[in-house]
Amino acid sequence: MKHSILCVDDEVDNVDALERLFRRKFTVLKATSAAQALDLLAKHPVTVIISDQRMPQMTGVEFLSESIKTHPNAIRILLTGYTDIDSVISAINSGQIYRYVTKPWDPVDLSNAVDKAIERYEIGEELIEKNKALQAALEELQTLDQAKNQFMVLVNHELKTPLTSMLSFSDLLNETRLDSDQQRMLSRIKGAALRLQEMINDALEFVSAETAQTRLDLKPVAASKLFAQSSIPEMIESVAASRQVAFQFEIENQDILCDEKTIRNVFRRLLHNAAKFANSGSAVVIRGKTHDGLYRVSIENQGAAIDEKRIAQLMKPFTLNENALNHSVGTGLGLPISQALVKLHGTSLQFYTSESTVTVAFDLKLS
């Protein structure tokens, strides 16, 4: 499709000369007055507008300024004599024209000017399309953020409310006389409800952290207090004991700046993974020490090496694979939640593997 050029000059011979110069490459529209040119602009799309400066009723600068209303993206070229240089400079400074060409014009110079104008127009149109695409992408992201917020409201109310009822009535039923079959069925119902509750809580925690809705209370905390044997929950101790896994602590005491509750959550999740997947009878080593001006926490367990591809899979939410790392239970959110929470602290999980050990680490700021 040819680009269209509008040539405006009150002298017919000049308009005809411009048509002869450009008609092979472009569709040429002609006007011998500003009023006639504005009528043509109302009916036709135009890429480049070439106008003489000295015209009756309306000067070229005035006409080009008026043309912005209907063709804001068109490129404007002014034909003028040296005596009009002040008005030309004013028009250039106000952004009304792309460039000016003195009369009598050089056909080669004018052709080159129009070619450059066409090129600039195409770049501008491409930029407009890209901006539209970016705007659409932004609106899509905003829609996704809104969907995440609605998801959290939905889960909090529409799922947690009936789940709470299920658990409450299960407890009430447990206080009544039940035979062995009823007890077994009730136990399974409550177990399933607790499992669902765990999934709901994990999903909410993950979405909250990913959307930066989790608020941090950053305070100095002693590393020896945060990463200690006494901070290990009974459930993790039980998992470790069942597999004869011991915990060893090598903690350099420093004050670190963090949200204590959040980092305890991360620490327990990583420790739970290490206890589950360490070789039976081995030790999980928890280290904490200063490293490059930061405090590095690492948890090392003895076990089969994990390649980068598998690590990337495990970092994706809801990834479950019963044949990898002995996965048989879980929501697939432990590592993604931990990653999202440490990201709120401006850091990330790092993995190091060898033939016999797997280490996950993260850095925190010193207080």
Helix and strand arrangement:
Blueprint: E1 4-8, H1 12-22, E2 27-31, H2 34-41, E3 48-52, H3 60-67, E4 75-80, H4 85-93, E5 99-102, H5 107-174, H6 180-210, E6 219-222, H7 223-226, H8 234-242, E7 246-251, E8 255-258, H9 260-277, E9 283-291, E10 294-302, H10 308-314, H11 334-343, E11 350-353, E12 357-366
Parallel strand pairs: 1-2, 1-3, 3-4, 4-5, 7-9
Antiparallel strand pairs: 6-8, 8-12, 9-10, 10-12, 11-12
Helix pairs in contact: 5-6, 6-11, 9-11
How is this structure best summarized?
This protein has 367 residues and is of the alpha/beta class. The protein has helices at 12-22, 34-41, 60-67, 85-93, 107-174, 180-210, 223-226, 234-242, 260-277, 308-314, 334-343, and strands at 4-8, 27-31, 48-52, 75-80, 99-102, 219-222, 246-251, 255-258, 283-291, 294-302, 350-353, 357-366. The protein is 50% helix and 19% strand.
Describe, in plain words, how this protein is organized in 3D.
The structure is a single chain. This protein is of the alpha/beta class and 367 residues long. It folds into 3 domains: 4-105, Response regulator (Rossmann fold); 138-210, Helix Hairpins; 219-366, Histidine kinase-like ATPase, C-terminal domain (Heat Shock Protein 90, 2-Layer Sandwich). The chain has 11 helices and 12 strands. The protein has helices at residues 12-22, 34-41, 60-67, 85-93, 107-174, 180-210, 223-226, 234-242, 260-277, 308-314, 334-343; strands at residues 4-8, 27-31, 48-52, 75-80, 99-102, 219-222, 246-251, 255-258, 283-291, 294-302, 350-353, 357-366. Helix 6 packs parallel to helix 11 and helix 9 runs antiparallel to helix 11. Mean pLDDT is 87; it is low at 322-328.
